[in-house]
């Protein structure tokens, strides 16, 4: 009985901590480019075409992200071109009822999930080639 009590006391004394990241700034990713969202508002008159949207969310525990992601904005948040600015340098990001300026800061880190479509097409192409080769050998 004493062993059980000591085991319970030991298990209760071990604290489990939860760690989450504190992001330095809000960001969005478009085509492998990370943009820092600033507090500068973009007027409706300066908005161009829709160029993308948030498709995935950054992981608050590990900091990992892939694809067109964001750490602060929900999936479906639109990115638009700013008239007179290159999409490679500046985007406008939908922020509830207004648009905010997002400026390019760096390239996104490599993640294999960004290239799933290329891998899938290569596998399909290889499968078709093998299928055709085996069919032609039988004739």
Keywords summarizing the entry:
single chain; 139 residues; alpha+beta; 25% helix
Please provide a brief summary of the model:
The protein is 25% helix and 33% strand.
Question: What does this 3D model show about the protein?
Answer:
The protein is α+β, with helices and mostly antiparallel strands and 139 residues long. The chain is 25% helix and 33% strand. The protein is built from two helices and eight strands; from the N terminus they run αββββββββα. The protein has helices at 2-13, 116-138; strands at residues 27-30, 33-42, 47-53, 56-57, 69-70, 78-82, 90-95, 98-107. The strands form two sheets. Strands 1-2-8-7-6-3 form a six-stranded antiparallel sheet, with no helix packed on it. Strands 4-5 form a two-stranded parallel ribbon. The radius of gyration is 24 Å and the shape is flat. The model has no long low-confidence stretch (mean pLDDT 81).
What secondary-structure arrangement, pairings included, does this model have?
Blueprint: H1 2-13, E1 27-30, E2 33-42, E3 47-53, E4 56-57, E5 69-70, E6 78-82, E7 90-95, E8 98-107, H2 116-138
Parallel strand pairs: 4-5
Antiparallel strand pairs: 1-2, 2-8, 3-6, 6-7, 7-8
Mean pLDDT: 81
State the secondary-structure class.
alpha+beta
How many runs of DSSP E, i.e. beta strands? 8
Helical content class: 25-40%
Roughly how many Å apart are the termini? 79 Å
Figure out the total of helices. Answer: 2
Largest sheet: 6 strands, antiparallel
Strand fraction equals 25-35%
- Low-confidence stretches are none
Shape: flat
């Amino acid at each position: 009985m004493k062993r059980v009590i000591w085991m319970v006391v030991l298990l209760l004394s071990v604290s489990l901590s939860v760690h989450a990241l504190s992001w330095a700034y809000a960001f969005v990713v478009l085509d492998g480019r990370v943009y820092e969202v600033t507090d500068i508002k973009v007027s409706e008159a300066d908005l161009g075409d829709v160029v993308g949207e948030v498709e995935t969310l950054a992981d608050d525990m590990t900091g990992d992200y892939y694809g067109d992601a964001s750490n602060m904005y929900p999936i479906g948040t639109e990115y638009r071109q700013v008239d007179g600015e290159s999409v490679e340098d500046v985007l406008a990001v939908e922020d509830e009822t207004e648009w905010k300026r997002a400026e390019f800061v760096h390239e996104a880190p490599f993640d294999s999930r960004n290239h799933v479509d290329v891998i899938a097409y290569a596998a399909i192409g290889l499968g078709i080639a093998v299928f055709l080769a085996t069919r032609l050998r039988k004739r």
